[in-house]
């Protein structure tokens, strides 16, 4: 793999794209995490005798810890970066801590089954989207208004990737 290949096009997603695109089931999982953390903290406080400090304070602190734990899972999803090179697409975090999302996702172009480019009005968002189909997985990335979908489709097509952009 040639690490020095030039970047053909690059962009950062709109802020909180993935968080805003999350469906109902994903929100249920996040709420479940908050509830589990809160219950564990409340039980720990009860058995350690910390409830004497005040039940309301313990419950409030437990819920706050649960919310912080759930939010920490989304640090990598605040904003992500997409780099399209001659042989691969590199998907990585644009914001986050050093230990979170340390390794970028490198996808060789020959592994990509198809890429669908969605205009904002096609899916009711204020920004475009790129759906990557690869080996039974689906990856969703946001495309800011500054990136031309037609230009992106042309670049991907020249690289031999199957691209769908509805006119």
**Unreliable runs, pLDDT <50, ≥5 residues?**
none
DSSP, total strands: 8
Give the helix/strand class: alpha+beta
Q: According to CATH, what is the topology of the largest domain?
A: PH-domain like
Task: Round the Cα radius of gyration to an integer and report it.
Answer: 21 Å
The number of helical runs is: 5
Q: Give the CATH architecture of the largest domain.
A: Roll
CATH-defined superfamily of the largest domain: Pleckstrin-homology domain (PH domain)/Phosphotyrosine-binding domain (PTB)
What strand order characterises the main sheet?
A: 1-2-3-4
CA-CA gap between termini: 35 Å
Keywords: Membrane, Transmembrane, Transmembrane helix
Transmembrane segments: 31-52, 58-78
Protein name: DUF5673 domain-containing protein
Account of the 3D structure:
There is one protein chain. The chain has 167 residues and is of the alpha+beta class. The chain has two domains: 8-14 and 80-165, PH-domain like; 24-75, no CATH class. 37% of the residues lie in helices and 28% in strands. The protein is built from five helices and eight strands, in the order E-H-H-H-E-E-E-E-H-E-E-H-E. Strand 2 (80-85) and strand 3 (88-93) form a beta hairpin. Helix 2 packs across helix 3 (55-72).
Q: How are the elements arranged and paired?
A:
Elements lengths: L6 E6 L4 H5 L2 H25 L6 H18 L7 E6 L2 E6 L11 E4 L3 E7 L1 H4 L4 E7 L2 E7 L5 H10 L4 E3 L2
Parallel strand pairs: 5-8
Antiparallel strand pairs: 1-2, 2-3, 3-4, 5-6, 6-7
Helix pairs in contact: 2-3
